[in-house]
Write a structure and sequence with these properties.
Length: 353
């Protein structure tokens, strides 16, 4: 009993600090934004939404999931593992659902673990999920260019918008720069020798795992056909997200152009990527409204659009993703593990659905 009490206390402290507190912060931010927008404005916007408009928005967002599933299929097929489309969809939307309800992008870690459950080696799964995030940021940056150019010509590009896009480009370039550095220098080999001589077993194993991830990521980065194919699909995802946002805005009778809606979504998505709140709730809405304000949209109306847009997407992910996450336990324990071989030599492996 004596040893169980401190363990239970530590678990409670971790729950409060890592789960409850970020959730309360998110609810507080969202409540403040609702108060700023006004409950009356929110109710009026909800009254104007028709079933037809809502159906269009949901359909546009559902199409992004077709593209996301296709993109993950391209990665797994190229790396030599054949997984069913339904399995890949479940894996992806489960991770998104967990990111929506848990802080610190825990869903990305779950994404890796789910892929590993279905037979993808751990290093390969980490490399895939990392590249998915890189592609997302690359697509956000590219899709933002038209509206950014319009704002730049008009002299309406505040420093925080420029910083967001530069951060986006940095995130895209950094993994490739690490791979380039690893290929051009003997730094990593030198570090490995020093770790083998002096470090503990745990540090040695950690470095070895990191080296495996780097090798897998290098294979992905150097596969140019895969790069272009997945980047094209990622652009389709970003455009579908922007189309969803624009459809939501139009259902509220707001005069918002598609490039403006796409730009607001892109900058807000970059802004929420580094927050501790679950799903970036509160941060996304605030950044989104600030961006639409640059295009002459009333701040209160922009907040209403942001709340409805984010709410629709998160509801879709949670309502489908959480049950899908519960089904992940049905992954076969004898799923075939993939071998670390070049993409061109990887033999297809059939994993049962």
């Amino acid at each position: 009993m004596g040893t169980q009490q401190p363990t239970m206390m530590l678990a409670r402290v971790k729950f409060i600090r890592q789960i409850l507190l970020p959730g309360l912060v998110a609810l507080g931010l969202l409540g403040a934004l609702v108060w700023i927008a006004g409950l009356r404005s929110l109710r009026e916007a909800l009254r104007q939404i028709t079933f037809f408009g809502l159906g269009l928005a949901v359909s546009a967002y559902a199409l992004t999931w077709v593209c996301r599933t296709l993109r993950l299929w391209l990665f797994t097929a190229r790396r030599g593992i054949r997984l069913g489309v339904w399995v890949l969809f479940r894996v992806s939307i489960s991770a998104f659902a967990l990111n929506s309800v848990l802080p610190a992008r825990i869903g990305d870690a779950a994404h890796v673990l789910y892929l590993n459950m279905w037979g993808v080696e751990l290093g390969r799964a980490v490399a895939m999920v990392a590249q998915l995030r890189v592609l997302d940021f690359a697509a956000l940056a590219l899709s933002s260019l038209p509206a950014f150019c319009v704002l730049a010509i008009a002299g309406k590009t505040p420093s925080w918008v420029v910083s967001s896009l530069l951060l986006c480009l940095l995130f895209v370039a950094l993994p490739g720069a690490v791979v380039w550095l690893e290929g051009r220098t003997s730094l990593f080999g030198y570090l490995e020798k020093q770790i083998q001589k002096r470090a503990s077993r745990f540090i040695h194993d950690t470095f070895h795992t990191g080296r495996e991830i780097l090798i897998e990521y290098r294979a992905i980065v150097r596969d140019w056909p895969l790069w272009f194919a997945t980047l094209g699909v990622s652009l389709a995802v970003a455009l579908g997200e922007g189309l969803t946002t624009w459809t939501v805005a139009r259902t509220t009778a707001a005069e918002v152009s598609f490039p403006a809606a796409l730009f607001a979504f892109s900058v807000a998505s970059v802004g929420k990527s580094a927050t501790i709140t679950p799903g970036g709730i509160g941060v996304y809405e605030g950044v989104f409204a600030a961006v639409l304000l640059l295009f002459g949209v009333d701040f209160e109306l922009a907040l209403v659009i942001a709340i409805l847009d984010h709410g629709l997407k998160k509801s879709f992910n949670v309502l489908i993703g959480l049950p899908a996450a519960a089904l992940q336990r049905t992954a076969p324990n004898n799923a075939v593990k993939s071998r670390t071989v070049p993409a061109a030599m990887a033999a297809p492996q059939q994993v049962p659905e």
